[in-house]
Design a protein that fits this description.
single chain; 365 residues; alpha/beta; 7-stranded parallel sheet; 15 helices; 12 strands; 41% helix
Length: 365
């Protein structure tokens, strides 16, 4: 069984020779530097033999002038403006413990009118040149290397919207400037529907959607507010994928405790939930309640066992999750976020070695 078969079968809740794994958001800059020093290689995924690889659209060729929204003098020397017009303020390159984190300047923070939303220049996600490389990339991943191909469309709606608007302003818009909020979300959703359709045409194994809509204490907004503003738009994106390719696996990411909306996600067609943080979600209860219709990708705590456990504790945690959550399929193990600087090398090795050595319950019977 190759990696592609392993991922697809596991995410369809079928038995596999072992539980598949990957490294979620990859290694932090510090960890990547340490990995290169230890291994002499550039790719942790290749070195450790992870089962999935991501693909994404190509960079834009537009050179949009966002100066009316973000002034260059608002940014530090190492800052930049992305294709959405958001200003990024990276942390200092010598701050190894936080160098992948950023501050933001929200380009729509002072806007108020619906016409302001309609006039705002969004990126050319629909442009054909941005997809030209994907058929060859996906074929190489799937057929040449035998890996699962995951098409990335993270920060699908909500995170793009609040990055543009600011979280405080967008949540207030949901209450007192609703036409503005609807216009902004609808424009983003229309772009994402096109991207989703183009991805589905190219037949990756998984299409990755997601927005962080929860904190570790529960939903970031009420579940009712999520159902009004985000659920129907997410459903339209998933419907667009299913219309083109009904067999594509739909992956949904939200950090934090999103338990309140899990039934809604299943209802609109989500197949895979990520990252399922063990520090704030009852992963075993989720398996009991929804494991017949939902698969789980993640589950290894990047705030607990991975940075602070011993290798023996990592091995025990991995075996427990395989035994319980991996029963009957439905599990891909990964850190629940980036592999941060505090994670010992020995714990990374313990995670990988244990996954590879442990057969899921029921295999061979």
């Amino acid at each position: 069984m190759n990696s592609r078969e392993r991922v697809v079968k596991a995410m369809r809740r079928q038995l596999t020779d072992r539980v598949p794994f990957d490294f979620a958001l990859g290694f932090s800059p510090y960890q990547l530097e340490q990995f290169r020093r230890r291994s002499g290689q550039d790719s942790p995924e290749d070195y450790f033999g992870a089962d999935a690889r991501g693909v994404n659209i190509g960079p834009t060729r537009l050179h949009t002038d966002f100066s009316r929204y973000v002034r260059r003098d608002e940014l530090p020397a190492n800052g930049y403006i992305d294709e959405w017009g958001e200003g990024h303020i990276p942390t200092s390159s010598d701050d190894v413990y936080h160098s992948h984190l950023e501050g933001y300047i929200h380009p729509m923070r002072h806007l108020r009118r619906v016409q302001d939303v309609l006039d705002y220049p969004l990126p050319d996600i629909e442009a054909e040149y941005r997809y030209e490389h994907l058929p060859a990339d996906i074929h190489f991943i799937q057929e040449t290397r035998g890996l699962a191909a995951v098409a990335w469309m993270a920060c699908t709606i909500f995170e793009v919207a609040w990055h543009l608007r600011s979280m405080e302003a967008l949540l207030m818009d949901f209450i007192d400037n609703q036409d503005f909020a609807a216009a902004l979300l609808d424009r983003i959703t229309a772009k994402r529907i096109i991207q989703a359709q183009r991805y589905a045409e190219m037949k990756p194994d998984v299409i990755l959607l997601g927005d962080d809509v929860a904190t570790q204490r529960g939903m970031l907004m009420s579940a009712q507010m999520w159902r009004r503003w985000l659920k129907p738009r997410l459903a339209r994106i998933i419907h667009a994928i299913r219309t083109v390719n009904p067999t594509t696996l739909i992956f949904y990411h939200t950090d934090g405790d999103g338990t309140a909306i899990v039934p809604d996600l299943i209802e609109i067609g989500v197949d895979i939930l990520n990252p399922v943080q063990p520090e704030c979600m009852d992963i075993y209860a989720l398996k009991r309640q929804y494991g017949h219709v939902l698969s789980f990708w993640g589950l290894l705590g990047t705030q607990s066992v991975m940075p602070f456990g011993t290798p023996a504790e990592v091995r025990a945690d991995v075996r427990c999750k395989i035994e319980v959550v991996g029963k009957g399929g439905g599990l891909l193990l990964a850190p629940t976020h980036m592999v941060e600087p505090e994670v010992p090398w020995e714990n990374i090795v313990a995670f990988v070695e244990t996954v590879k050595a442990t057969q899921p319950p029921g295999f061979g019977f």
